[in-house]
Amino acid sequence: MTRLTQELIEILTLEKLDENRYLGQSRDFIGKRVFGGQILGQALRAASYTTDRPAHSLHGYFLRGGDINEPITYEVERLRDGQSFVSRQVRAIQYGRTIFTALISFASIEEGLEYQKKQPDYPHPDTLQGEQEIKESMMRFIPEPLKPSFIRERHIELKPLSDVRNFFKPKPAEPLYAHYVKTHDSLKGEQDQVALHQAIVAFYSDFVLMTTALRPHGLSYLSPNIQCASIDHAIYFHKPMRADEWVLYDMEATVTGNARGMNYGYMWQDGELVCSTVQEGLMRMRES
């Protein structure tokens, strides 16, 4: 297993402090603040330690920015253990303050009515360039101080379907974005757990989603005078899925206003709609 996949698994494997309290380590994924996907994945994993059922939904709010130099304590409250659903509330805490809170629901797989919207028609991932290769081709446009962080390889593998813009000179585009995503390596043995697959999906569900709403404005997260941050995040797991096999993640923004943007995401695997996401993000213009 490659170092990147092993590090991702380690980040999403929490230390049990006592009953219903877990400790997660932080890492620099995007800068000095904790990456929202890390918190989503860790919060989901913390709750999963208290039940043997798979998650079917998570609704979370980002309350404060997290410090990458400090571990995060996750406190799980057992709200309900019913025959059909298990409900948990999770608080992520740093320096004695709650930085994130989520309600997470778990349920067993059962038979029922079946319907899904049609999967969009995109090229197969084998025909696409990887994100890392695309980034390397853009290095001449990147300011020297930012090159090390820009070229750094992600802990997951991405193959963009939409145009990868020059983040320093973006142009207005449709509020749509899509990519294929998976871990660099297969999960085998004791690591091949539903809870870990779902935590990894939660981790990578936060990549790009919020910034889809910046596209029609000709902006990127690196544009001057723009403040971006995730406000909330919801995940719905519709069917079983594997984080180590290609997932088509199709995203769209529907409205921007009041310094916020609304974004929706749909994950497809083997022709099935397996997961949906919703996120509202802050996109505030600041004076020069």
Please give the CATH class.
Mainly Beta
What composes the largest sheet?
Answer: 12 strands, antiparallel
Structural class: alpha+beta
Distance between the termini: 46 Å
Measured on Cα atoms, how large is the radius of gyration? 19 Å
| Fourth-tier CATH superfamily name | Acyl-CoA thioesterase, double hotdog domain
Which word captures the global form?
globular
Give the % helix.
10-25%
Mean pLDDT across the residues is: 93
Number of helices: 5
Keywords: Hydrolase, Lipid metabolism
GO molecular function, one term: fatty acyl-CoA hydrolase activity
InterPro entries: Acyl-CoA_hotdog, Acyl_CoA_thio, HotDog_dom_sf, TesB_ACOT8-like_N, TesB_C
EC number: 3.1.2.20
Structure description:
The protein has 288 residues and is α+β, with helices and mostly antiparallel strands. It has helices at residues 3-11, 36-48, 131-137, 147-151, 194-204, and strands at 15-18, 21-24, 55-62, 72-81, 85-94, 97-107, 156-160, 176-183, 226-237, 247-257, 260-269, 272-285. The protein has a single domain, classed as Beta Barrel (Porin). A hairpin with a 2-residue loop joins strand 11 (260-269) and strand 12 (272-285). It contains five helices and twelve strands. A twelve-stranded antiparallel β-sheet has the order 1-2-4-5-6-3-9-12-11-10-8-7.
